[in-house]
Amino acid sequence: MTQMLNRRETNEPKAPVEIDNRERLIRLGYFVAIVLVLAIVTGFSPFLGVIGTLIAIVMLHEFGHFITAKWAGMKVSEYFFGFGPRLWSIKKGETEYGVKAIPVGGYVRILGMNNLEQVDPADEPRTYRQKSYPRRMSVAVAGSAMHFLLAFLLLATMCSPSTAMSCTTGERSRRTSRAMPTSPSSSSSSAATTC
Question: Is 62 a catalytic residue?
Fold first, then answer.
């Protein structure tokens, strides 16, 4: 009987151990260094640019939710890349920003997204569930809207006069084609497909 009581006492939840940001930053540095070394050793390094771009796309998607929730007056408590245990985080104002160990996505935690969530009564007016339908919808759609904005910016950049690329075929524009000797048929086709 005494063993059961002792076991119950040891199973009581303990207060979370506070880790300073310097230690978390060192852990994040180790994690990034291990990934870089593994990428170089395995010959995976050319794909780091693709992985970096995917991370940027995910975080810009989450930024769409984040900025729209802030604009709508909702309380955003977390803005993280990854899932699982924290590698590094910093709290600025009421929001904690950081990186978690499993790099398969990101998330923004907005108070009151779940109707069963317990919220401090002082924060209740700033919850997702207390905002009007148009404001909630704008937060929900903001991530996808960010993808459309990114696509438009990439298209505008690729078809700008300074890049001299064709919007439809990917060929050089007429200005570049005139500088290079080409056959008559190729110059007429590129003239019809420029931006």
Answer: yes
Whole-angstrom distance, CA of residue 10 vs CA of residue 19: 23
Tokens 């950081």: give the residue.
98
- pTM for the model stands at 0.68
pLDDT in tens, 5-49: 455 445 555 555 555 677 877 877 888 888 888 888 888 878 888
Catalytic residue among 12, 23, 62, 124: 62
Written as six digits, the tokens of 137 are 């919808």
101 touches 154 (CB < 8 A): no
Q: Over the range 46-69, which residues count as b (16 or more CB within 10 Å of their CB) and which as e?
A: eeeeeeeeebeebbebbbbbbebb
Mark out the alpha helices in 16-47 (DSSP H runs).
21-42
